[in-house]
Design goal:
By secondary structure, the protein is α+β, with helices and mostly antiparallel strands. The chain has a 6-stranded mixed beta sheet, with helices on both faces. It has a 3-stranded antiparallel beta sheet with strand order 3-10-9. Strand 9 and strand 10 form a beta hairpin. Helix 2 packs across helix 4. The longest helix has 30 residues. It is flat and about 80 Å long. It starts with a helix and ends with a strand.
Length: 291
Amino acid sequence: MANTTGNFAVLTKPEIWSKLILRNLDDVGVMTECINRDYEGEIKYAGDTVHITQLGGVTVNTHDDDTPINYQTVNGEQQTLEIDQQKNWAFVIKTIEAKQSNIKNLQERFSARARKAIADTKDKFLHTTGFSGVDAGNQLGAETVTKNNIYDLCISLYEKLAASNAIDSNGKAEDGKRPFLILPPALVSVVKLSEQATHSTTLGDETIRKGAIMQYAGFDIKQSTLIKATSGAYNILAGTKEGITYADQIIETRALEDKDYFGIFVSGLYVYGAKVVQPKALASAVVTIGS
């Protein structure tokens, strides 16, 4: 059944497209579950800067009843999150197609196209940002793994996070969740072939958060098809959400009818940025699969 003119007019409301597309962008991508938005604030355009102040540690002193208390000045380290990434999308919905379609389904379908157009790029950017910002002491460097030793690699990554106090004695991060370990499908297959995975009697009773495919060596394992091998080696990232902060915004969406064509022309501008604010909350390795 054809839609009424009133329903068709919904397609020309930019605010509806903005909310729908941004919501979909938040729901897609492995890295979305591995970052925080603690310092997002209000982003208005590309080039905005989010100022982040992180307080230093507090010193514990031995108390003496006869000695005045010494009040420490806790200085804050100033960091900046630059919103320096810009992406746009633009597509046309033909008038005949819109008139003959369910408006809600049509919006979902076209917003999914816009989402896909930038979601993979955003995920790659977050992974690259995280990998390049890992503390030097948490970088394992080049490793070759097989099904016989991949568990050892994962334990080494876990040990780095534990020694850096990124996770507590129960193996949980500040948010109460297990650390993440992001692997490409090829390495996920190696994990599944390992003795620890094939002979495991239980993966635990806790609910695995969205995107995790299994628990292994203390990690929530996440699979990403966007991690590609370079000269046969994969850049592997592990950590907690405290490591990377992220901010984004759809700053403008247009939905217009053109006088020379029959259709709705939709376009949008999306800006974002990311920064490693806790380098010790991340760990990395450059992994090659052995024979």
